[in-house]
Amino acid sequence: MNENTKLSRRTILQAGAAGLGLLVAGGCRRKAARHEPGKLPLDSRFTYDVSPFEHTDPALLLYAEAAPIPTGFAEPKCIAVDSHDLLYVGGDRAVKVFGPNGKPFPTLYELPDQPRALAPADNGLLWVAMQDHLEAYRVTGERVVAGESLGEKALLTGLALAGEVVFAADAGHREILRCDLQGRVLGRFGRLNSGDGNPGFLVPSPFFHVLYGADGLLWVNNPGRHRIEAYTLDGHFELGWGRPAMQVDGFCGCCNPVYFARLPDGRFVTSEKGLNRIKVYDAKGVFAGVVAGPEQLVQDRALARKACADCRIGFGFDVACDSKSRVLALDPATRAVRVFTPQAPPPDQHKPPPVKQAP
Amino acid sequence: MKRRDFLGGWLRGAGWLGLGGLLAGLTWRRARAENTVWQIDPRKCTACGRCAIECVLEQSATKCVHAFELCGYCQLCTGYFEPQPNKLNTAAENQLCPTGAIVRTFIEDPYYEYTINESLCVGCGKCVKGCTLFGNGSLHLQIRHDRCVNCNECSIARACPAEAIRRVPARRPYLYKTREGSA
Fold this sequence. Notes:
Number of helices of chain A: 3
Mean pLDDT of chain B: 92
CATH topology of chain A: Neuraminidase
Shape of chain B: elongated
Low-confidence stretches of chain A: 30-37, 355-359
Low-confidence stretches of chain B: none
Strand order of the largest sheet of chain A: 1-24-23-22
Number of helices of chain B: 4
Distance between the termini of chain A: 124 Å
Strand order of the largest sheet of chain B: 1-6
Number of strands of chain B: 8
Number of domains of chain B: 1
CATH class of chain B: Alpha Beta
Largest sheet of chain B: 2 strands, antiparallel
Order of helices and strands of chain B: HEHEEEHEHEEE
Strand content of chain A: 25-35%
Oligomer: heterodimer
Helix content of chain B: 25-40%
Mean pLDDT of chain A: 89
Number of strands of chain A: 24
């Protein structure tokens, strides 16, 4: 090995090392530049903050959470409970059935499209609201009713059975449809300015539900008015309750509640989006307490954001109640049914009412 | 051939190749930059507020835009009103936008239209957060190309924590929200 060759190798190595050093230094400088602050950070006036409303007073909690029921759906959409406390969960292109203990039944209803709302009937039929029509299935999975299409703009999101009549909430046309047992439309009511004397439904986003109560009234959420409203079966407005408020006793945001159900004693369970909270109101609409607050319902915000299918509309928890006053809430983020059981009332509520003194 | 000559030849060749590659890369990048512009993907944007402060312009090129076909025209718009307004009127204390850049116009009972005054909008995204959290998310942020200087390396894109800013073809410079998603 001569002197020239030895020097040349050293020179090459030195040059290589110097080049590598320059590259590393350049990379570090570039990385540091990424962390350089731009203009002054925005002050608190530019921050949207609803965190003061995300905390729930523990004294208001009426329910405790039990183990959830995984649905196995990629995109669960709706739930319902029948008179035997069987839980029906709709999602993807099917409906699954679970026992009261959360154990899945072998029954599987395969559907042509995604279900939007469910209503199990006492005669064993399962009514399903598809986007633009109604369908009904036997327990064997056989489809016995496939109603007519209600138009391109129709978006059925709620379903209720009242004897021989099926009521469907159409969020697309913002009205309630009265249908026969073949899924044909017999009548409709509630559209704004329709001249039927009703206040009119304001449904900015596709969260519109209907429920037939033991009181013989049809209960409908009117999210744009922040109310739950009652109608006669022929579509006349009877009463409504609810007010817009971020405080826990009101309905938050632009349009809530998005889902609701009734407990066996007639109390209402409401579910809100945006500030996800599930609450209980008595039969007259007076705030009674909280089932679960935002901090309990949405523990992983990134997961919740992913669950919002098109990241355009916030999501809510569809709710249903069983005969034991449990509240079942469909969580689109964890794709499970969250189960809430009533907490024992505080000891002082067990005390008998004070005896009235004779005058 | 000496080892020194051999290595020298290789080094010279590699140098010319590197120089050629660098020139080709720069030319390609320049051509690419001329045909594309920066834009915010509203599906990824989290309205974090960085657009308002990271843009090299004194007033950010990012502005709020309104997809009217998605809007619910709500009386209580959560993109316009503070979370707990005193009243549903246009009084400054009830407005969410710190610069008063949203104009509320009565349409018919109970509907209101909301439009953006872009000269006042700083692109902070506060209204976008309110609208997305509670409403339909019709308010969203876009880079306005009558203002954007189309930097080679967009400083907002560099700072965006959601990596929501990317280059789009200049012939379709906006990613507006629509009923189907983003167009």
